[in-house]
Every structure is written in structure tokens, then in C-alpha cells.
Inverse folding.
């Protein structure tokens, strides 16, 4: 195919795309208008029905909890797949280590204090924020997913401060695997616990508490968010730990 | 009334910034710099979601778009670079 033909093909495809795009655009509801009844109904009833003031979490973990189980397992499968693909096979050796990387007595450039001090000082606050987000899905705009990712970044900060070996010690793969499986499994188990009582899967069977917006309110919503937080934190730490192992261990200290 | 006008101005400004940010991301050629620009773009998107009253989505975008994705991309680039050496 000559470049002239290619340009024609592109022009026709682009014209088609623009036409379809404008057609779809003309059919959109006006800016700020919401046509469906679903959102309004949820907003009217969600707080009274679940005692959760974080209505988005109430939708994610209660009304549409089954969707969220699926999403949870997307991340679970990604982390599991990563572990399987990047595992070290028996008899597999790294070929591309330069002699300098292999030398035991090479001089490693130390991490500067300007990086070390702030990153280590941030670890505590970051853990606190992550924990707060994962355990306040029922009251505020937050949730296990966001909290979990932020918890995982606390481990990244330990790595950034130049302490790769401390990072590895703090996040042993076996423990992370266990935490990830526990988080994902507990979500499913909460759903099954409802079934065991003759209720629909993932039905909110726990007491909802007295006051809407209290941390102890909203029954299974808070519980599921917490488990999601554990799962997500473990999955992200696992994924990034695997990648670090692949790329940077050689530079960070001979093993 | 003035509050609505102010909000409109804010939303329009953020939309323009996001459009400009996306252009910068596409125009960046150097891979490492691209990742940093992408991270900044994730931050812009998070601000966009926040000004459109979706704090939950803003938080997710902030954690994934501005932190997790750039981190994974940087590691992948480091891996590829190590192979090329």
C-alpha cells in the first residue's frame, strides 16, 4: 500500500469517526443534566436504608456489591498472573548482570539525606491516611481501593529511601500472598455468610447502627471496604515488589 | 448566582488545563519525561473530577493515575533499558 492510498484510507476513516462522534454528541443530555431515575432513587433512600453517609461506598459495596466482587478479582488475577509470569524458574539464571553488578565489594552510591529523611518521615502519615481511607468508606468519600493503594505507597517510600532490603523484609512475598488472598476471600465470604442465613448474596445482614454517618454504622459496607483495603494494598505491593525485583535488585545490593 | 458563575469559570479552566495537559502528554517524546508528565496529567484529572463534584472518583484517579501507573511504567522502562545496555 502506497502512502497516498494510506492517506486516503485515513481520511475516510477519520471522516467516519468525526461524523459518528458528532452524531453521538448531539444525543447527549445537556451539561449537568442527569436523565435516569436510578441516581435520584438511590440518593433518596440510600442513607435511610444503609446508615452510610458515603453513598458511593453504599452503592459499591452494597447495592452493586456483586459488580465490585468482579472488580476485586480483576486486581487479584493481575497480581497472581504477575507472580506466576515473573517467578524464578529452577535452573534459571540472570544473564545480563555486568561484572560490575556482580562484584561484592563495589561501592554503592548512598541515598542522599535530602531524599532519605522526607521519605522516611512520610511513611507514618501515609500509613495513617491509607488506613483512615480504607476504614471510612461508610462515612466519607473514600474507600478500600483508594486506601489500599495509599497503604502500598508507604512501602514504596521505604524503597525510595534506599532501603531495598528493609522493603523486602517489611513485605515478604508469602505474607503478601496470604494477605491478598485473605482480603479477596473475605469479601466473597461476607457474601456467602448472607446466603447461609437465607438472604441474597452480599445482602447487608449486619446491624446498621443507630446513627447515619458513624464509623461503626452501615453493617457489611464498612467490613467489605476494610477487606478490599487489605487486598488492594497487598496486590499493589506485590506487583511493584515483583517489578522492583526484576529491574533494580541487582543495583541495590548484591545478593 | 455569583457562586454558580465562579464554579462555571473554575470548571471551564480545569477542562482547558486537562486538554492542554493531554496535548503535552501526547507531544512528549522522551519516555522517562513522559511518565512524569503523565503523572502530572493524572493530578489534573483528579482536580477535574473534584471540581465536577466526584470526590470518590478524584481519589481513585489520584492514587492510580498519579501514583500507581507512573510507578509501574517507570519500572518497566528501567527493565527495558537494562536489556538494551
Amino acid at each position: 500500500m502506497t502512502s497516498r492510498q494510506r492517506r486516503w484510507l485515513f481520511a475516510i476513516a477519520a471522516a467516519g469517526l468525526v461524523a459518528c462522534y458528532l452524531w453521538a454528541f448531539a444525543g447527549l443530555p445537556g451539561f449537568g443534566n442527569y436523565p435516569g431515575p436510578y441516581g435520584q432513587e438511590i440518593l433518596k433512600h440510600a442513607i435511610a436504608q444503609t446508615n452510610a453517609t458515603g453513598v458511593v461506598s453504599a452503592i459499591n459495596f452494597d447495592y452493586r456489591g456483586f459488580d465490585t466482587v468482579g472488580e476485586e478479582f480483576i486486581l487479584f488475577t493481575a497480581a497472581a498472573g504477575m507472580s506466576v509470569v515473573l517467578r524464578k524458574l529452577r535452573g534459571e539464571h540472570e544473564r545480563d548482570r555486568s561484572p560490575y553488578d556482580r562484584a561484592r565489594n563495589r561501592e554503592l552510591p548512598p541515598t542522599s539525606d535530602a531524599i532519605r529523611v522526607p521519605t522516611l518521615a512520610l511513611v507514618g502519615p501515609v500509613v495513617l491516611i491509607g488506613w483512615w481511607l480504607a476504614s471510612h468508606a461508610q462515612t466519607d468519600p473514600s474507600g478500600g481501593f483508594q486506601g489500599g493503594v495509599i497503604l502500598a505507597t508507604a512501602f514504596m517510600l521505604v524503597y525510595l529511601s534506599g532501603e531495598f532490603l528493609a522493603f523486602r523484609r517489611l513485605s515478604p512475598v508469602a505474607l503478601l500472598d496470604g494477605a491478598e488472598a485473605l482480603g479477596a476471600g473475605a469479601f466473597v465470604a461476607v457474601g456467602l455468610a448472607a446466603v447461609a442465613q437465607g438472604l441474597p448474596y452480599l445482602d447487608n445482614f449486619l446491624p446498621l447502627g443507630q446513627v447515619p454517618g458513624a464509623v461503626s454504622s452501615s453493617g457489611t459496607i464498612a467490613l467489605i471496604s476494610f477487606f478490599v483495603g487489605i487486598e488492594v494494598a497487598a496486590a499493589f505491593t506485590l506487583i511493584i515488589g515483583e517489578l522492583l525485583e526484576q529491574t533494580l535488585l541487582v543495583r541495590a545490593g548484591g545478593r | 448566582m455569583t457562586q454558580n458563575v465562579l464554579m462555571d469559570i473554575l470548571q471551564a479552566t480545569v477542562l482547558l488545563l486537562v486538554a492542554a495537559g493531554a496535548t503535552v502528554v501526547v507531544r512528549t517524546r522522551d519516555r522517562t519525561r513522559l511518565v512524569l508528565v503523565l503523572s502530572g496529567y493524572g493530578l489534573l484529572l483528579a482536580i477535574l473530577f473534584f471540581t465536577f463534584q466526584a470526590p470518590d472518583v478524584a481519589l481513585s484517579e489520584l492514587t492510580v493515575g498519579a501514583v500507581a501507573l507512573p510507578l509501574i511504567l517507570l519500572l518497566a522502562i528501567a527493565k527495558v533499558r537494562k536489556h538494551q545496555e
